[in-house]
Amino acid sequence: MNLSQYYIDKELKTPLYLQVEEIIGELLLKEPYSLGEKLPNELEISKELSVSRNTVRKAMYGLINKNLIIRKKNRGTFKNIDDSRIRTTLNNWYSFNEDMKKQNRDFKLFEHSVCACRPKSEVYDKLHTKANKEIIRLLRVKGYLEPELYVESFFHPDTNLDIKELQDGNITQLYKFLEERLKVKIVFSQEEISASMPSDEIKKHLVIKDKETPVLIRKMLIHDEDGAKLAYSIGYYLANRFVFNLNISR
Description:
Elements: H1 16-27, H2 42-49, H3 53-65, E1 69-72, E2 76-79, E3 86-89, H4 96-102, E4 108-117, H5 121-127, E5 135-143, E6 149-155, H6 163-166, H7 174-182, E7 186-196, H8 200-206, E8 215-224, E9 229-238, E10 242-245
Parallel strand pairs: 3-10
Antiparallel strand pairs: 1-2, 4-5, 5-6, 6-9, 7-8, 8-9
């Protein structure tokens, strides 16, 4: 493991073990560790980063709890390739951040922007609103150590949302915000999942450099309990990072 390019800043308020955890987590995305190569032991890492072995051990436990690494008896520590893909469900709708927290994955917000635009006809059709009318669009890019999800949310004009109130990057649970702001209860989401090669714009936001990385496209039409259409969201997920689970009972 080449750690010479990394530096632990002991003056930061961020605990040392969290700095170590982030460094190792970043290296897990790179070869040879992304392909299943054994990680160095705790002593080797502690010497490379000039921190105590206990600090490294605490960082390792954090990565184990997030299912990013596994320890195999008499063999060593490895990237958990089987669980490296993020699993989320289609059975219930709720905040993506809430879903990730349940899996001990703290996602970062890489981009957050709001504007009034005239989107593609698909958005007008889904929201059943007049074409060419300006609609508020919220764009967000999220990920663990790097961008992994690009999502655009378009809000029905009847919601009377203001651009300024959506500019707050601290809105981590969009649906909860809508319920509180609009005094409604969200009870229904029509969803559609497909796979495609990303456009140049999606590649730019998700930092996709090769030509063979597909994305999963998740389209969601959000209703309130009275059937009023509130928002239409289109999310682009890195296909090699996500698995959607669907449980069906008769």
